[in-house]
# Entry
Amino acid sequence: MSDVEIRTRLAPSPTGAPHVGTAYQALFGYVWARKNGGKFVLRIEDTDRERSSAESERAIIDSLGWLGIKWDEGPDIGGPYGPYRQSERLEIYHRHVEKLVAEGHAYPCFCSRERLERVRKERQKSGAGSGYDRKCRNIPPEEAGKRVENGEEFTVRMKVPLEGTCRFTDFLRGEIKKDWSSIDDQVILKADGYPTYHLAVVVDDHLMKISHVIRGEEWINSVPKHILLYRFFGWKPPVFCHLPLLRNKDRSKLSKRKNPVSLEWYRRTGILPEALLNFLGLMGWHPADDEEKFSVEEMVEKFRLEDVSLGGPVFDLDKLKWLNGRYIREDLTTEQLMNRLEEWALNRDNFTRILETCKGRMTTLSDWGRLTPHFFTEDIEYRKEDLLLDGLDETGTCEVLQVVLWELERLTPFDKDTIYRMFRKLSDRTGIKLKKLTAPLYVAVSGKTVSTPLFDTMEILGSDVTRMRIRKAMERLGGLSGKRLKKLEKEYERSNVTGRGLD
Ligand code: GLU
# Structure
């Protein structure tokens, strides 16, 4: 073994709720570093200024903490190669981009958005390989420099070879080839001065001395661009190891339409972190003795990166629940179980909030059990007829629920006042009275037509559980066909000037 320190990293973009795929990549990177006495780094890739948020970063850190995955360096604890948040590293990227331009590996591009869009469409029609016609690649450097100095808006693109083949090795798959002609002159610096993912990931993985890039298979197609950047800079690339894609039962890529994907959902529905990690470990690896239940410690002991198997692992919720049950029954004393329940939902804070929603309808103390089961279980049965929006059929109701889902997805903060305001607006827009509009939602979140106040209930359940239940209700109604969904999405976007919800 070489004496290079094994350093792995997790590089999430803080653009939404933490995803199980993030935990999956984190686990394998973490285990590989620990196995080798190396370091595991958390780097926040927040170069998409519109979509990144501090709130999402906090949620990622919080979820990883819940899982018990610890990093040795990161934005919250610092480290020798910081800062670990890309938005704080702009000057580093600028320096590197300038070097690439000065050495003729990259060039400023002055094409307007409109032109790029037009060219892309034309080339698509004519079957040309890539999306950009490389117009600015031929501007003499001096002229380009002057235009930049004069304040003209520009991006910077890398010069991808026009012919030949890129070859690289994936640790699990061996040699992979891709023709350069199929790859665009990728933008590496955006007009807002922020780098794109491709530049930032290469510069950071190098400067942070990452030895193994362990991440999801969806990034494999980006490797040629990265390899080229490593070559331009004269750096040695790290080992690339792409984990197999997590799949729904029908083998399509894991998606929220078919599975819960938010870590928060698992936490809120009472999955134990050790069971979830064990389950994620099984998505691509199992110990030689085939025992399916193992702790992270055991995984560290027995894991070998070369044993990761590529057969697309199926994310089977029933299996996760089966494992979770084993942890509860085999590993927890009753007292420990009580402690877990307390941490989970039976604590004073949470229980007080729940009581506030039902106190008004209690006559005996034991009534709380009858009035609040939906706060403690996911086993909710729906009667189709209760879910229908008055005057609409199954599909019509699903369309309304889908719009509600889109709205809830982008709602922050997820509190009762904000939720109420959203429904109020939706009611005004659609002309459906608020009471009528919310009736199927009572049923979706509680299973009953009469239940605890809707907006309070949603706030307590949280965004992920609420949305998952609405999805389940839609499924009960037969759901929407792909075609219908696309059409609705277009209408929805058109009806909102910004294409982003009701505001
Ligand atoms: N920021 C990328 C993500 O959101 C990281 C991809 C990588 O690991 O290189 O997943």
